[in-house]
Amino acid sequence: MKTLKFERLTILLHVLAWAILFFFPFFGRDTFSLHFIIKSAFHIAVLASFFYLNMFILIPNYLFQKKIGIYVCTVLIGIVLVMCIYLLFDQWWMEISDNYTALKPNRSRLSSPGRQRTPRSIGFRMIFPLISSLMVFGISTSLRTINEYLKKEKLQKETANEKLNSELAFLKSQINPHFLFNTLNNLYSLAHSRSSNTANAIMKLSELMRYMLEDTAGKKMQLYRELEYIKNYLELQRLRIDESVKVELLIEGDFTNKTIEPLLLIPFIENAFKHGISYQENSFIRVELISNDHQLILKVENSVSSQKAEKDDVSGIGLKNVRKRLELLYAGMHHLTIQQNENRYFVNLIIDL
Q1: Per the confidence metrics, is the pTM higher than 0.70?
Q2: Are residues 261 and 136 in the same domain?
Q3: H/E stretch holding 245
Q4: What is the mean pLDDT of each run of 10 residues along the chain (353 residues)?
Q5: Domain contains 166
Q6: Segments forming the whole domain that contains residue 152
Q7: Residues 207 and 312 both lie in one domain
């Protein structure tokens, strides 16, 4: 629909431009002779013919095909042809006018005494068609070249967007199975121990999966919805861990009327639970979310066990993917710092919303 409207507007602008060129010679004139009207119409018809011939045939077939020599020669021949057509038509029309005037000598002498036709030189008569043809070829070449450039630029943007969307979908598909895999392991542990929290855990998982699979499909989410998702995730994790593991969630600021790309924050929290919990040593996980005017700050801190196992490949994929998503979705609009020492692992993420 938008393309059709644009094409109609383009046609209307072309018609308007040629109409202005047609009526332009009439401005400031007191009389409008049939001779002058026909002559002006013929000139516009010739210019329009070569305008569109250049735009739709010469430029695509020669200029865009890198046949510069053939294009330049064709344009020069066209300019010479336009000038010849102008001169021949003017000569032919002048003879017709003279013959018509000769049939009415008395009226001619009485109406315009002393105004004899002064023949103009061929060089003088060639100035107008030369300038007109140069303008026609120059304007048509410029318009077609600019239009082609804009089409290529639009196509490149569409291609880049398609590539970006495909890459983001792939990255997102890798994050979701990672979360599901970990959660199912948690549910298995609860069911194996016949915990009374199993039903509640399944309900929480259902809510989380609905958010991941339905609500976040191809769109930004309200920030408070992402916050609810994190809260549900933490509650689900608390069901499986020992009370000796201290889990804190600190929230500060206004989370309403703001949006964020979904599932960007959870991989850092997942990583903290995966590698920050130890039942042989004191361990903790601390998550802090701060929302100010134009930024969201996520701070995740967790203990590091002296007997911590090496990270498996799945966890590595999760953090690698979220880094990639941040680079794609918030290029130049985020700052990520990750620090680690013998006892602590710390993540600080700042996103400009």
Answers
A1: no
A2: no
A3: strand 245-253
A4: 70 80 69 69 85 90 89 89 81 67 48 45 66 85 89 81 66 59 76 79 82 67 90 83 87 92 87 81 91 93 71 55 85 92 90 91
A5: no
A6: 2-26+33-105+118-156
A7: yes
